[in-house]
Design goal:
450 residues; 60s Ribosomal Protein L30, Chain: A; 2 domains; four-stranded mixed beta sheet; two-stranded antiparallel sheet; globular
Length: 450
Amino acid sequence: MSIAGELARFLTSTNFNDLPPVALERARMVIASTIASAAMGSDIISSQIIRELAKERGGTAEATLWFDGGRKLPVAEAARVNAVMSDAAASDDSDLRSIAHIGTIVSTTSIAMAERTGAGGRDVLRAMVLGYEVAGRIDEALTPGRTERGFHGSISTIFGGAVASGTLLKLTQGQMTQAIALAATSIGGMHVAANTSVAREYHAGLSAMLGINAALAAHKGFVAEERVLEMPRGFFSAYGGDHLEDVTKDLGKVWDITTDMAIKLVPGGHPHHAAAEAAANAAIAGNVNPADVASIMVSAPKYRTLSGPAHPTDLIGVAHSPAYFIAAAVADRGYGWIHASPAKVADPVIGQLIDKVTADPNPRPYPDRFPHRHGATVTITLKDGRQFSEHVDFPRGSGPRGIEWADVDGKYRTLVPLGKLAPDKIEASLKVVHAFESVKTMSELTSLLS
């Protein structure tokens, strides 16, 4: 049996009651996180452009555009717009193996498809957990090969959208096999463009839209090459896949949404969250005055050079600048949502500390091929010679460390007001997310997001 076929057999035989409570809880959490990040991204120019284009195309009113007065569009278009908004703010979620934003895609596609099909909350949560599982397993097999070949995480997150949508469409095993195969031949996306521009959220929008399209085509009976994942010159061969046997190994024993998903509790690229937290802890431990800092060194193999702009000027730069994360955390003894603001980006104290951040040229090696699972160490050296060093393996809000509802709720209440929702709708929508298993129709949530 093909890899797609084995995955499809597992997916179509796994019921809601087969899923562990913690996996369902993490699905509810990532819904809240995705909505919050979408609110923050709703007015970013890239989101505005994709929303305007979608409205111009119009079409059957199937699914809701969040934070847009209740306007509905075809399911794939609505999911695309909502995914772009969430990804644009660089504040959504990541998988710790390779920083693919799987939660954004399974959330937006599942909610949109459930509006079309009339599915309830239990159906959506099942679809999200299954979609995350397949996307996570495929992306693990692509780590680090796809990045080394220049491809963005959207080439794996599309499987989350296809599987989640296919689950809600109640695809047969054969149809789900085809949805996965079609997803494999549907998308590209260049990593370098995502790191330096708003192409990042463009990729997320395509992942959501094309994943839904793959499921809809399979539902209509479209048949592709079902061995496309593993065949010579196929998906894994082209994108640098390895460890293919792990893609279907021990299905259903451990769930990726519980082990590797991380929700951003601060803005910017997830690879740097652990370093920022370590920097803040070191500054607190030493009661560090920024004026007394002689140097700051970050140690981890992923920081052999400090990527991104040293002195960012906008959210894109902030999201990909480890020097900014670390300097801001030392300056303010913490790193939070405020550090995405223009005032903080231009803060001269942070700017001076940025020039003191260096990378350890001889870091200790990682035990495996997943660098983002292993955090970073930050050492602050003061002008009087004292040193304060702290290490963080997993940032707050990550699966291995545990995700707390208090943190997710705090994120929701901080960011959702940026979508211009009334306070009563903010609290009401958060209440719906908490009790999502009892939701009968998606309008109970989407009617509140306008």
